[in-house]
Specification:
The protein is an alpha/beta fold and 160 residues long. It has helices spanning 16-28, 48-58, 74-80, 93-109, 129-137, 148-157, and strands at 4-9, 31-37, 65-70, 85-90, 114-119. It has a five-stranded parallel beta sheet, sandwiched between helices. The structure holds 4'-phosphopantetheine (PNS).
Length: 160
């Protein structure tokens, strides 16, 4: 039996913390689909197309990973892809409440889909896409925080 997992998120932009979860998840599941949420209500720094492209450029070293985008309910997308698992990373206790709420509603909506949590590597427990944007916006180098394609893209966005 092939287990397909979906790793959903905003990825605005993808950070080294996300990459760590994807690399480790790819060793556990047969296939991982990294799914960028196309949320019309948010104003992201990077468009969905840019976020998908940055993820693709940052994941060329992993064979069993693909990148896609989705709209609407996550569980509907998971079923459409014949996947059975949602992967989410947990950085700290502060992530727990939001993640528990999401996992619970997702299970209520679709009991056949399981959510798997992975603890983020301690080196990245402080890292978030928002923090990365803050650092880059004020002219600091984000090269230790994000993959090289994202560093370049941030530099272009903020005209450094
Ligand atoms: O990276 P993020 O922003 O923390 O990711 C949040 C995400 C995309 C996992 C979550 O917002 C989501 O699943 N959105 C899709 C809509 C949905 O299914 N919501 C939960 C049930 S109401």
């Amino acid at each position: 039996m092939t287990t397909i997992a979906v790793y959903p998120g905003s990825f605005d932009p993808v950070t080294n913390g996300h990459i760590d979860i994807i690399e480790r998840g790819a060793k556990v599941f047969d296939e991982i689909i990294v799914a960028v949420l196309n949320n019309q209500r948010k104003t992201p720094l990077f468009s969905v197309e840019e976020r998908v492209q940055l993820l693709e450029e940052s994941l060329t070293h992993i064979n069993n990973v693909s990148v896609d985008s989705f709209q609407g309910l996550l569980v509907d997308y998971v079923k459409e892809k014949n996947a059975s698992v949602i992967v989410r990373g947990l950085r700290a206790v502060s992530d727990f409440e939001y993640e528990m709420q999401n996992a619970s509603i997702n299970r209520k909506l679709e009991s056949s889909v399981e959510t798997f949590f992975m603890m983020t590597n301690n080196n990245y427990s402080y890292l978030s896409s928002s923090i990365v944007k803050e650092v880059a916006r004020y002219g600091r180098n984000a090269e230790d925080l994000v993959p090289p394609p994202v560093e370049r893209a941030l530099r272009e966005k903020y005209q450094r």
